[in-house]
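If you are new to this repository, start here. Below is one unmodified record pulled from the training split, so you can see the exact layout before writing a loader.
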Amino acid sequence: MQREDIQIISRHSNLTEETVAKTLKESVYNGKDAWQKFLRLFFMSLGVGFTVSGILFFFAYNWADLHKFTKIGLIQGVLIITTILTLLPQINKKIKNIILTGASVLVGIQFAVFGQIYQTGANAYDLFLAWTIFVTLWVLVSNFAPLWLLYLVLINTTFILYSQQVVKDWSEILICTLLFVINLTFLVSATLFVKKKTTTWFLNIVALTSISFATIGIVIGIIDKYQKHEESFSFPILISITSIAFVLGIWHGLKVQSGFYLSAIPFSLIIIISALLLKISSEEMMFLFVSLFIIAGVTLTIKNLIDIQKKWANEK
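And here is the target side for that same chain:
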């Protein structure tokens, strides 16, 4: 039960203020135990993050003074220690997952150190590819949302660097289309197989990433008129997949009563339509019309979202 539900019930019933306050305290407000659990995980995550950052800056500052075996040995030693900590039975599972996420970052630092020592390229796509491959098992075993997010970032980074360093003739529309498909596949898989409410933020981030790549690709296609051969092939595919995904996203948002999809998708459509209008004409009156269209579209989207949320609240 949410705070808004209790307030609606109190306005249409004879509940006393003491009863409402007691219900809010028991059902809505976090107690001492909840705050202690939150602070424990927060400071644990903060400690792991600062530790990993400290190791990174240690190598950056003392790079010239360290022997190459010392560099590799230090990072390997820290990585082994953190991995062993995740195997100790007395450590809480969430804390283990946080430590494992830090260890996954250390894997990337290790490959970067190796690349700098032997000049294999610290920003090459194969470094991120190796990083992705070597943490895959940890991601699958832990099934930890932040680690999954890191994994998705590595996949996207690997693909972007591959398109820039290897297949340089790929068009921007094709790259955006493939990135959209990759992230959309993650989103659909996570939505179907993940039922925990605590991963809602993860699903929203992946959905926002997917919508962003689709929007960027379509806007590029509209502005450039997809003149190249490969763009003329990939642009209709991007339009088709995006249309289906947006319709299903609106349907899913209404089904699960999520305002995220009902706001992110309309905003994306506003950007796409604005780009189309500006492509038709670039005169001053068109700029004025587009500005008015954006204001009206955003206002209408927010109003409809508020009305839908009120309807959902009354149905509960």
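Two things worth knowing about this chain: Residues 169-316 form one domain. The chain has two domains: 31-149, 169-316.
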